[in-house]
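Incident review: delayed structure delivery

Summary: a single-chain prediction request sat in the queue longer than the usual turnaround. Root cause was a stuck worker, restarted by the on-call engineer. No data loss occurred. The affected request and its eventual output are reproduced below so the record is complete for anyone auditing the incident later.

Affected input:
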Amino acid sequence: MSGRRGVAFVVSGPSGVGKSTIVRRVLEADPRIRFSVSHTTRKPRNGEVDGVDYTFVDEAEFRRLIAADAFLEWADYQNHLYGTSRRAVSEPLAKGFDLILEVEMQGAQHLRERLPGAIRVFIEPPSMPVLEGRLRDRRTETEEVLRGRLKRAEEEMAYAKQCHHRIVNDSVEEAVAELLRIIRDARAQGR
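Output delivered after worker restart:
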């Protein structure tokens, strides 16, 4: 790479808003960007690959990593543990790659303190009814879990004000283009 240190982009937003789809397409469009693979104790969803989408571990292993101070941030979300390892962030950035960290709100708030130079991007739904429809269409949660995700989404919307950029995911193509523009602008500014 050019000798420049990479820039971290912390992408957050409510569950079901389309973060993973947007991030996946941005990664396909720009070879200078890497993805920070988070650890989680939840079971893989259909099509998810260990080490690519998440590093899937059991709770005992996750707790061992916490004790070893291996995480920049970690959180308990919907009765599962999620965390961003220090190594998954430091290595690509040191090699000059820009890095996308896709995290939930609690993790994003911790990263605000631990990665102060990161650019925070919030992905939001066009409306709460649209978000509910997207969550229902996934058919991966019970009604109780779905209600919990919707309640949490309303709380998470307040976090958007703390982000550098907000993208409304009304169209995946437009949201991808907007995130790519944010990344290009950061590079143009010498970040």
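Verification: The mean pLDDT is 91.
Action items: add queue-age alerting; document worker restart procedure.
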